[in-house]
């Protein structure tokens, strides 16, 4: 579905992505992991041409994105949604307006917009928050709004750049649950960049490991599932001491 053919990206003299080829399969949750500076986010941003590669091609569903221009490119990019570590919501717009704006930009039929916004907010469990502003929401709620916004135009692929890195462990698990639901019930292919091994192991089917701007390897894995801790202090102590090599102070 997404195929990168020998893509490269330089920032000045620095080679951030070096002739990378990679396939993301239809319907999978594909992780990209690696050390800080390995080029993960740059590679993800190349997939929807937020970063334009100096060399190589990006192919989506048999169409070469890097060779498209104007209306065709805009149309093709509608099939790719994206979410970010810091949510990127518009501060002076309500939850409803944040989702509606992506429909407006995509020229979604005006009369169907309200229904579509509410459908997306329901999907992420935030329909009651439609009139709130981002500053009135928790980090997890902000990321849910960002997911609703990314889903509004019915994308086939959702690109996720460190989607849980600003969140606590329980909220991380909740957001991973939402992403899993996006994949399973809507059939959306997901690519998720994270430096957190637990995040990648919990939901991904295939994982690409990057190092120094190159793909080191791509492996298939069995997702371990999402473990939600409750906020009971007893369960925190149990987690901390379960390996038996620590005692009570
Ligand atoms: N716009 C830019 N201008 C200059 N250098 C950049 C730019 N974007 C990224 N880089 C550099 O390219 C390299 C790869 O960055 P990238 O964000 O892709 O890495 P990453 O693996 O996602 O790392 P991290 O986990 O720290 O975000 C880094 O050394 C970074 O400093």
TrEMBL record:
Keyword annotations from UniProtKB, A to Z: Amino-acid transport, ATP-binding, Cell membrane, Membrane, Nucleotide-binding, Translocase, Transport
Highest taxon of source: Bacteria
Xref: Gene3D superfamilies: P-loop containing nucleotide triphosphate hydrolases
Lipid metabolism listed as a keyword: no
Keyword hit for Amino-acid biosynthesis: no
PROSITE patterns, A to Z: ABC_TRANSPORTER_1, ABC_TRANSPORTER_2
Domain ABC transporter stretches: 2-237
Any one GO molecular function term: ATP binding
Listed Pfam families: ABC_tran (PF00005)
Coiled coil: none
Protein name: ATP-binding cassette domain-containing protein
């Amino acid at each position: 579905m997404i195929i990168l053919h020998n893509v490269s990206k330089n920032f000045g003299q620095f080679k951030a992505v070096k002739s990378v080829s990679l396939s993301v399969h239809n319907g999978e949750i594909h992780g990209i992991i690696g050390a800080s500076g390995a080029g993960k986010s740059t590679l993800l941003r190349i997939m929807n041409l937020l970063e334009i590669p100096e060399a190589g091609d990006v192919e989506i569903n048999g169409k070469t994105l890097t060779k498209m221009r104007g209306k065709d490119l805009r149309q093709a990019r509608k099939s790719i949604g994206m979410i970010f570590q810091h949510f990127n919501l518009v501060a002076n717009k309500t939850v409803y307006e944040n989702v509606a704006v992506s429909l407006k930009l995509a020229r979604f039929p005006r009369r169907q917009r309200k229904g579509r916004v509410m459908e997306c907010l329901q999907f992420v469990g935030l329909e009651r928050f439609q009139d709130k502003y981002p500053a009135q929401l928790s980090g997890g709620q902000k990321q849910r709004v960002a997911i609703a916004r990314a889903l509004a135009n019915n994308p086939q692929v959702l690109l996720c750049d460190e989607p849980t890195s600003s969140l606590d462990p329980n909220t991380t698990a909740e957001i991973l649950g939402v992403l899993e639901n996006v994949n399973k019930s809507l059939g959306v292919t997901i690519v998720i960049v994270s430096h957190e091994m637990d995040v990648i192991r919990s939901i991904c089917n295939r994982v690409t490991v990057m190092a120094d701007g190159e793909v080191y390897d791509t492996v298939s894995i069995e997702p371990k599932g999402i473990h939600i801790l409750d906020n009971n202090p007893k369960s925190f102590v149990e987690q901390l001491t379960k390996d038996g090599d620590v005692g009570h102070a």
